[in-house]
Amino acid sequence: MKSAIIIFFSLLGFYGLKAQHTHKGAKPLFYPNIEGYVTLKTDLHMHTVFSDGNVWPTIRVQEALRENLDAISLTEHLEYQPHKEDIPHPDRNRAYHLAMAEAKEHDLLIVPGSEITRSEPVGHSNAVFISDANKLLHDKPESAFEAAKEQKAFVFWNHPAWYRQSPTGDPILSDFQKKRIENGELHGIEVINTGDYAKESLALALEQNLTIMGTSDIHGLIDWDYTEKGMHRPITLVFTKEKSLSSLKEALFAGRTVAVYNSLLVGKVEFLKPLLKASIKINSATYHEESQVLAVELENVSSSDLLFKNAMPYNFYSKAPIFTVKAGEKETIQLKTLKNIETIDLKLKALKAYTAPNENPIVEWKLTID
């Protein structure tokens, strides 16, 4: 009888722990949906020991689950394989297959991809949504891009402002890239890679109608490079019709993205403004008793600290015109309206959000005063 009781409570404890088990870390990423679309959190540029990374593919899946990502791609270098003597792998799809096996019990999309790695002027580019990485291995770089196009891949230009590709730190749009764009073989560009944001890359994205991307390009551990420093990895928010690989691919080709690195947000105005508006919830708008000072409580429901500047004709009471609403927190601003009004257009300029080089969007909320 005693042994039966012990077994019963052991099983109870086991299943209780199992029910409480979660892969999410202490600060999972969250960004709201925008009208008409589902917001997917993605990192489509990462490496493992199957090229020049330092971890096994299963670790990339586990890291993504901890940060609550929706989709990842392991984009191993095709031409650069420094670990091949220790980990020989004639099949360049191997990292993808291992990640798929690790993710099969989880709601995480694994996008097949590879990195075409050449010196300038070709540079580095990621081809994602490929069907076979082995068929991208060609001596001529033009042939590699042609093979990616044959597989209907989405291809983006990696770290174009990287000093090893461009000594000045400014991206150079070469004749090779121009030809790839003209041929429909290059569709996106990283404006944020690792910790670097290049406004010149954003200018190219807008000029050439390339999809705006942000990626970690992680080689080591996310914990060591980001989390332990109090930061999140760079990601691309993709606005899809549903959470599926086909919908993700469609949205990338359509350019419905915002690149995010902690409090920095970069994207086309038609997607960045709705994201910012959805990220701030207005909890209340009420006058202080017997006054014309209006208190408005804002709540940031995203994972980015948002820096705003007053863009209204009304001055702030007891607060500077530039203020931060921290991720997941509330902040009250007080407006001197000089007379009692029933509605107000709340207008705030988002200072660390960019729709073009040095251009910040003004976000508006129409409020009815309590």
Explain what you see.
There is one protein chain. This protein is of the alpha/beta class. Helix content is 25%, strand content 29%. The protein has 2 domains: 22-262, Metal-dependent hydrolases (TIM Barrel), CATH 3.20.20; 280-368, Sandwich (Immunoglobulin-like), CATH 2.60.40. The protein is built from 9 helices and 22 strands. The strands form 4 sheets. A 7-stranded mixed beta sheet has the order 4-2-1-11-12-13-21, with helices on both faces. Strands 3, 5, 6, 7, 8, 9 and 10 form a 7-stranded mixed beta sheet that branches.
**Class derived from helix and strand content:** alpha/beta
Number of H/I helices: 9
Largest pleated sheet: 7 strands, mixed
CATH architecture descriptor text of the largest domain: Alpha-Beta Barrel
Which outline best applies?
A: elongated
Report the CATH C-level class of the largest domain.
Alpha Beta
Mean pLDDT level: 93
As for the CATH topology of the largest domain, it is TIM Barrel
Order of adjacent strands in the largest pleated sheet: 4-2-1-11-12-13-21
> pLDDT under 50 segments (min length 5)?
5-10, 12-21
Strand content: 25-35%
Radius of gyration: 24 Å
Distance between the termini: 65 Å
Helix content: 10-25%
> What is the count of distinct domains?
2
Number of strands: 22
Considering the protein shown, what is the CATH homologous superfamily of the largest domain?
Answer: Metal-dependent hydrolases
